Amino acid sequence: MRTPELVALYRGFESELLVPLWTEIGDLMPAHPRSRAVPHLWRWSNLLRLAERSGELVPVGRGGERRAIALANPGLGGRPFATPTLWAAIQYLNPRECAPVHRHIPHAFRFVVEGEGVWTVVNGDPVAMRRGDFLPQAGWNSHGHQNVSDRPMAWIDGLDIPFAHYTGSTFFEFGPPTRSMTPPPRTGPAPSFSGHTGLRPLPRLEPTPATPLLAYRWEHTTGPSPSSSLSRPRETRSPWSRATPRSVTSTRPRGETSCPPCARTSAAFVQAPVLPRAARSGRRSSRSSTAAGGSPSASTAGRTSVATSSSCHRGSPSPSRPSR
């Protein structure tokens, strides 16, 4: 019952910009998550068609920085976010085109869906991008892209921009002007950080806030079943991956805490199909909080899609952590 005294109390709260908890607790601490994001499917063929048209009409350069087209979840009111904590987009680079160098606080990843010939240069280290590769990018590292080939290339970008905005921690800085394009070397420091099985980069033995590996190659997931690594001697297993009979998780160096592996806010998995026959055939798929559906093999090129889904439901069990 709202008495005159209670009304006066609430007016006093308003005048001092105060909000009593007893009127807000249901929204602040609900019994289960209430995400506004909804499941949605973006067809790769439609994304690629519009990206190609953008490549004809929209230049890449300082200011716009990237020819990237964000996925806007229909439940988020038109915001350019795939989920409440993830910005995801298709990025398209024409032949002989450069995307300028910059750096930002949000962590990023790239999953290559179409083409070959683009190099991303991270703090001066050139890293090749090929179809099916997964490239994590920790925040505040200078990076740019260049397509040294005669064919266009497209990939999926993912950044934790919404999370950085929510925490008020976003910084951005332009890099030096783009120089004339020269083909990056085939050898150099970057291949040492490309996730080769059984190798540990010596300069990065200390704990780091994110993986020092700049690329996880698709070619390294299409050999023997991931579970076969369990039978290897411990000293020959990759220190950058955890293996179970069903999945391989790209992880950060040992000695770090148990936060998400590729960066503080994201994780990535390569998961073998459940069916034994499919598993024996060596087929793989990739998934994350924004999943690229389908293998990068040529046979599935026309069926690739990007989907978002809700990962938390009332009464659902907590996600299990892969065993070491």
Plain-language structure description:
There is one protein chain. By secondary structure, the chain is of the alpha+beta class. The chain has a single domain, classed as Jelly Rolls. The chain is built from five helices and 17 strands. Strands 2-3-10-5-8 form a five-stranded antiparallel β-sheet. Strands 7-6-9-4-11 form a five-stranded antiparallel β-sheet, with no helix packed on it. A hairpin with a 2-residue loop joins strand 6 and strand 7. The longest helix is centred in the N-terminal third of the chain and has 14 residues, at 44-57. The protein is elongated and about 75 Å long.
DSSP strand tally: 17
Mean pLDDT value: 74
* Sheet having the most strands: 5 strands, antiparallel
Work out the count of structural domains: 1
> Do you know the CATH architecture?
Sandwich
Strand content: 25-35%
Order of helices and strands: HHEHEEEEEEEEEHEEEEHEEE
The CATH class, by name, is Mainly Beta
- Calculate Rg over CA atoms: 22 Å
Q: CATH homologous superfamily - what is it? A: Jelly Rolls
Q: Could you name the CATH topology?
A: Jelly Rolls
Strand order of the largest sheet: 2-3-10-5-8
Envelope shape: elongated
The termini sit apart by 58 Å
Q: Catalogue the unreliable spans.
A: 188-193, 225-260, 282-302, 310-324
Q: Would you tell me the structural class of the helices and strands?
A: alpha+beta
What's the helix and strand layout?
Blueprint: H1 4-15, H2 25-28, E1 40-43, H3 44-57, E2 68-70, E3 87-93, E4 98-104, E5 108-114, E6 116-122, E7 125-130, E8 134-137, E9 143-147, E10 153-159, H4 161-166, E11 172-174, E12 241-243, E13 247-250, E14 269-271, H5 276-280, E15 285-287, E16 290-293, E17 305-308
Antiparallel strand pairs: 1-17, 2-3, 3-10, 4-9, 4-11, 5-8, 5-10, 6-7, 6-9, 12-13, 13-14, 14-15, 16-17
